[in-house]
Amino acid sequence: MSSAVDAFMQEVIAKNPEQKEFHQAVQEVVESLMPVLERHPEYRKAKMLERMVEPERVIMFRVPWRDDQGNIQVNRGMRVEYNSAIGPYKGGLRFHPSVNLGIIKFLGFEQVFKNSLTTLPMGGGKGGSDFDPKGKSDNEVMSFCQSFMSELFRHIGQNCDVPAGDIGVGGREIGFMFGQYKKLTRQFEGVLTGKGLNWGGSLIRPEATGYGAVYFAEEMLKTRGESFAGKRAIISGSGNVAQFAAEKVLQLGGRPVTFSDSSGFIVDDDGVNEEKLSFVMNLKNVKRGRIKEYVTKYPNAKYQETDPKADHNPLWSVPGEVALPSATQNEINVNDANNLVKNGCYCVSEGANMPTTPDGVNVFLESKILYGPGKAANAGGVAVSGLEMSQNSMRIGWTREEVDRKLHDIMINIHENCRKTAEEYGTPGNYVNGANIAGFLKVADAMLDQGCV
Ligand code: NDP
């Protein structure tokens, strides 16, 4: 680590103790940005990095609710409004027991750069709660969502802060929160994205993150004259991002062969086809079951439990040319990255946020494989959220084909922007540097224009 990065990180760690995911996200960005700060003393003078690591505002609140037995439960809610230099705060809400301030800050920080890359006018934010929707009834989820929004509503708005979904927050949760927002404010406005189609949602929003990650992978493959045709795709997760990544891989002639959840993973060497994928969608989105049920229905496939304490996850040793990590942060460690490369993977496009640990990322960069970091590769979700905001403002709805075409164009542009920027700063092929630098420049220039605020 250079001494400038080291000194900067020491301050960040001292000021934000215990927030290890946040430190990890900041360190990666700061390392990429050193050549930019050398070339542009105006950013150093304006203390641009110091300002960008500090959120504009952090809101933390109590979320009391009643379970089906009438007992009172208490969770913690939060929203980090990170940066509004180029537009209203925009970023998802995560409901998962692991949620803490460090995780929401890492996600919010990354969101600033990601949203900038989309070319749409969106600042960055993120929020969530340590509430666990798993095993809760619809009534309990509604009770929680209503209580969560009873505080959040005063901080958000269509021109100020527009949350969306993330882990544990899908169409059901967005619906309950939108209903409560409308009741409290008497405003029917585009305050959340990922809404239902008949009350302001956009076609292709559910598909957008997964489709986008595959479009990004396709662009990377094209730089080597290749396509998805006939390639095996190793996919983690089985939620929103994983499902639609698999759908797009299938449409492009590839073969998804794995899915996972926090208990284990399935391998289907015959390939997950359309019929099997709709089984997974029903299993996960309607029955809210576990991925292991896949092998009861399709006995040719194999299920293996994962041990979170083990030094590697055998999912990442499954042979395949393309990997689409689509579950959660730090799910690929250095051993997993080595196993992927060893077993023939040469294209990784991150549907999840920060799914690879820093030493895992180094394995990918040193092996010179095609590696698309989450910030760039999964920006399709927020991009279509931005398109949902546009449609809400204009009070119109675009067709499926129109939105998909815009999404595809945005992903092609993001890829090109990252590729060119990496080259311009002397690290061709390094999409990490490309994404961090290109995302930074737009936000930093807007902050310079807007003065010391
Ligand atoms: P979902 O809640 O729909 O699905 C999450 C999936 O990941 C589930 O299969 C879940 O398994 C698994 N998972 C979650 N936490 C863990 C864990 N700690 N260990 C192992 N598996 C885990 O979420 P999404 O698909 O929306 O999000 C997945 C990733 O994509 C996240 O990193 C998110 O931040 C990122 N992302 C999502 C976007 C979106 O539009 N939804 C946009 C951009 C990024 P289980 O059911 O067992 O918990």
List the helices and strands and how they pair.
Layout: H1 3-15, H2 20-39, H3 41-45, H4 48-53, E1 57-66, E2 72-83, E3 89-95, H5 101-117, E4 124-129, H6 138-152, E5 161-164, H7 171-185, H8 205-222, E6 232-235, H9 240-251, E7 255-256, E8 258-260, E9 264-267, H10 274-285, H11 294-297, E10 302-305, E11 322-324, H12 334-342, E12 347-349, H13 358-366, E13 370-372, H14 374-377, H15 380-394, H16 400-424, H17 431-450
Parallel strand pairs: 3-4, 3-5, 6-7, 6-11, 11-12, 12-13
Antiparallel strand pairs: 1-2, 2-4, 8-9, 9-10
Helix pairs in contact: 1-2, 2-5, 2-17, 5-17, 6-7, 8-9, 8-15, 8-16, 9-10, 12-13, 15-16, 16-17
The number of distinct structural domains comes to: 2
Helix and strand pattern: HHHHEEEHEHEHHEHEEEHHEEHEHEHHHH
Tell me how many strands there are.
Answer: 13
CATH superfamily of the largest domain: Leucine Dehydrogenase, chain A, domain 1
Relative helix content:
40-55%
Main beta-sheet annotation = 5 strands, mixed
Q: Hey, roughly how much beta strand do the residues contain?
A: 5-15%
